[in-house]
UniProtKB/TrEMBL annotation:
Database matches in Gene3D superfamilies: 2,3-Dihydroxybiphenyl 1,2-Dioxygenase, domain 1 (3.10.180.10)
InterPro entries linked: Glyas_Bleomycin-R_OHBP_Dase
Protein known as: Glyoxalase/Bleomycin resistance protein/Dioxygenase superfamily protein
SUPFAM superfamilies named in the record: Glyoxalase/Bleomycin resistance protein/Dihydroxybiphenyl dioxygenase
């Protein structure tokens, strides 16, 4: 008999070389706020979303590797308006009706992690 999997959630972990700086940036530009952690690893939350930042020394032995994170939402326009007001993006970043069936916009954090806000069409 095969046992079925019941995943509970998935939490992206993004690299950083400066957790304190990035916590301030994420709160100002995305609305994600500190939830837990220390100077090496933190969790950020907004609504029912969560992701983590992990410190790396940004050297050959412990590099900062940029990642990509997509956050799916039900109403892209609410987020566009908010992120324009925050100064995170310009309204022209919104791409409507992409060939892969989404409305979306994206931006980079201070470590070159790409974050996309996406609505399925």
């Amino acid at each position: 008999m095969t046992q079925s999997l019941s995943p509970l959630q998935i939490i992206p972990v993004l690299s950083t070389d400066n957790i304190k700086r990035d916590l301030e940036w994420y709160e100002k530009y995305t609305g994600f706020k500190y939830a837990f952690g220390d100077d090496g690893y933190v969790g950020l939350q907004r609504d029912n979303l969560e992701f983590h930042l992990q410190f790396h020394h940004a050297n050959e032995d412990d590099p900062v590797f940029p990642s990509v994170m997509k956050i799916f939402v039900s109403d892209i326009h609410t987020y566009v308006d908010e992120f324009v007001k925050r100064g995170t993006i310009q309204k022209e970043k919104l791409r409507m009706n992409t060939p892969w069936g989404t409305h979306e916009f994206g931006f980079y954090d201070l470590n070159r992690n790409a974050i996309f806000i996406v609505q399925d069409v």
